[in-house]
UniProtKB/TrEMBL annotation:
Signal peptide: 1-25
Keyword annotations: Coiled coil, Signal
Recorded superkingdom: Bacteria
Any coiled-coil regions, as ranges: 42-72
Protein name as catalogued: Transporter
The organism of origin for this protein: Rhodanobacter umsongensis
InterPro entries: Autotransporte_beta_dom_sf
Compositional bias (Low complexity): 81-103
Classification of source organism: Bacteria, Pseudomonadati, Pseudomonadota, Gammaproteobacteria, Lysobacterales
Residue span of region Disordered: 81-126
Length: 441
């Protein structure tokens, strides 16, 4: 019995061994090779996917930049239609198919980055606005013609006497009024030497008319006298350079440094003969007026300034500050009396200016800017021979102005700029109106 059980157990064991799969010594190495091939293929696939996503992003960014440039040159808004999807390369699934969910997310991020890049690029209208308050460096050559009109009206009441019984004024009351109208044509050329440097030349031509009114002299408040003088000619020519210090980033503004030199090419106000006028039968109204109006300040001047611009969607904020130094100059005659000649030196007071404003782009063609500017000038000084400098009383000034500007792109190369300035202090013009037409090559 025990022998039978032993034979049966051996038969069962033999059957089980025959039914089991035969193991080969080469099975383990072959499985390792397959796994290595799979890992290599997966790595290549991931590399191709990443390269494909990068190429799609670059193609879309280039396409959007080309569209923005074409729209800017055409002077109209860039199209907002979606771009067509690019065909997928051989062996890869097309974007948007069910097998490329990872590619869809990468491609969507690439499109968003391209859209953001295009939005950060300044529009044509913003560049036109910046050209008036700041500087742009992507234009090779710009020729600008401008025409400006300014109105100045200043009244002064002069009392020469005393107050009796705290209520009655005894003496002379004189009224002085000066009204000036100025028309200025300016030709400007701006040349881009490099992406960081531009050179500018400004040549103005002025036509001025000033009316002088005086009344009340000699005890007669009803007696009035008025005289007009004119003057025209080329003004003071200036040459300037703009250098970009820093490009705009998320934490700092676009910063430009400006150097300028102004030459005394206009008619200087020193040494112009004045004529003495008498009006009325009483011969009491006597006052002097210049025979002709000057067209320049007569001195060499140097200017250094800094301007900054920061984009704050949907607007840009700009500011500037600067210093103007006047160099002393000697003249053969600084006297207003036509019968005498008095040589001497003139030194204008140095000036400081600053301003700030904001600009909005309505669309690709039109922008609006609002700004405030102020200029503080110290007193002028005169010197005859080796004598000490003498300050000219009343020659200091504070000219504050509020400015409103509108730019409109007429074509791909031409822009119309309108500027309105309103004087906020007695030393500033009552108002000024300027039209500019820059032509860009």
């Amino acid at each position: 019995m025990n022998t039978h059980k032993t034979l049966l157990a051996g038969a069962v064991a033999t059957a089980l061994l025959i039914g089991m799969p035969k193991a080969s010594a080469q099975d383990a190495p072959v499985g390792a090779k397959d796994q290595q091939q799979i890992n290599a293929l997966v790595e290549q696939l991931q590399t191709l996917k990443s390269s494909y996503a990068q190429e799609v992003r670059r193609l879309r960014e280039l396409d959007m930049q080309v569209q923005a440039l074409q729209a800017r040159l055409a002077g109209k808004a860039a199209p907002n239609t979606a771009l067509p999807a690019l065909p997928a390369p051989n062996g890869a699934a097309a974007p948007g198919s069910g097998n490329t969910s990872g590619n869809e997310a990468t491609q969507a991020g690439s499109i968003a980055d391209a859209e953001k890049s295009r939005e950060q690029a300044p529009t044509r209208s913003m560049q036109d606005a910046l050209l008036q308050e700041h500087a742009v460096f992507d234009r090779k050559l710009t020729l600008e013609n401008s025409l400006s009109y300014s109105r100045y009206d200043r009244k002064q009441l002069t009392l020469n006497g005393f107050l009796a019984l705290d209520a009655i004024f005894l003496g002379n009351i004189a009224i002085e009024n000066v009204k000036s109208d100025s028309l200025t044509y300016n030709f400007a050329a701006r040349y881009g030497v490099s992406p960081r440097l531009t050179l500018n030349l400004d040549v103005p031509y002025l036509a001025r008319q000033t009316a002088y009114l005086k009344g009340g002299a000699g005890g007669s408040a009803a007696a009035l006298a008025e005289e007009q003088t004119r003057g025209n000619g080329i003004g003071d020519v200036s040459l300037s350079a703009n250098y970009k210090l820093f490009a705009e980033t998320s934490s700092r503004p676009d910063t430009v440094l400006t150097f300028a030199v102004t030459a005394p090419t206009g008619r200087a106000p020193y040494g112009i003969d004045w004529k003495v006028l008498e009006r009325g039968d009483d011969k009491f109204i006597r006052f002097a007026v210049p025979q002709k109006q000057p067209t320049g300040n007569g001195l060499w001047q140097g200017n250094i300034g800094v301007s900054a611009v920061k984009t704050m969607d949907p607007a840009i904020v700009f500011a500037n500050i600067g210093y103007i130094h006047s160099f002393p100059r000697r003249f053969g005659d600084i006297d207003t009396d036509p019968q005498t000649r008095t040589p001497g030196e003139v030194k204008l007071g140095n000036s400081y200016y600053f301003g700030a404003g904001v600009a909005f782009a309505f669309n690709e063609r039109t922008s609006l800017s609002l700004s405030f500017s102020d200029r503080l000038s110290a007193k002028a000084s005169l010197r005859n021979g080796k004598l000490p400098w003498a300050k000219v009383i009343g020659s200091d000034a504070n000219a504050g102005t509020f400015n409103l500007g509108v730019t409109y792109a007429l074509s791909a190369h031409t822009t119309l700029v309108t500027l309105l300035g309103v004087g906020l202090s007695p030393d500033a013009p009552d108002y000024s109106l300027t039209f500019k037409v820059p032509y860009m090559f």
